[in-house]
Amino acid sequence: MRAEAIDRLVSEARDKGGCTDRMYWTIVHDFERAEWTTNLQQLEEIGIHPPAPGEVGDTELSLVLWELIDALADLGISLLHTDHLTDRELYERLMLHVLREPVRDLPPDASVHEYIDLSPLLKRATPDDDQGQTVQAAGPPTWHDAIHTPAAVDGRRDHLLREAARARSTRSPGGKGPREAASD
Fold first, then answer.
1. Among residues of the chain, what percentage have pLDDT more than 90?
2. Angle, in degrees to the nearest 10, between helices 158-170 and 58-74
3. Using CA atoms, how far apart are residues 152 and 140, in angstroms rounded to an integer?
């Protein structure tokens, strides 16, 4: 049914002299028709049940956070601009807010990647304001945040996220990603 609907969109575009790229029309179809869900529900569907922030102690926080980041990457979800957040702040922000926001439940073969930008100041569209409103997501980054992130080797996590995303796309079975190699 999905494939036939995409074929119709491509055919209609061809008849009108428009774009006939099947990937383009697949994305259009999926974004317009896919059911709503949350990233947290998507994680639960693949058997990942992250604990509530209050249930995670300081000693296991880094491991739990990286397990969550790895599981999100398995779903094609990448985090951007996290260096200004401590591990605790990032985990709480993800679990209490970001992963509970509605998203389209795109099929795994959609070849679409989701990027979650955790910049301190960004524009977000809200149901009441489709133009977007400026929200302060966190205080300004501080030197303390940059150097006191236990999960990162040099005090920053963003470069590890980028390296992990690259490695995930090129990793051979049983190979090590950059974070695993950094901990050796």
1. 42
2. 40
3. 20
The two beta strands, 114-117 and 77-80, are parallel
Q: In sequence order, which residues have a C-beta less than 8 Å from that of residue 39 and are 6 or more positions away?
A: 72, 75, 77, 98, 99, 101, 103, 114
pLDDT score for 134: 43
For residue 45, give the nearest of 53, 34, 37, 56 by alpha carbon. Answer: 37
- Beta strands 121-126 and 129-136, pairing class: antiparallel
Tokens of 100: 């509970």
| Each residue's pLDDT tens digit, 108-163 | 665 677 889 988 765 444 455 444 444 444 443 333 333 333 444 344 787 777 77
Compute the distance between CA of residue 85 and CA of residue 22 in angstroms, rounded to an integer: 39
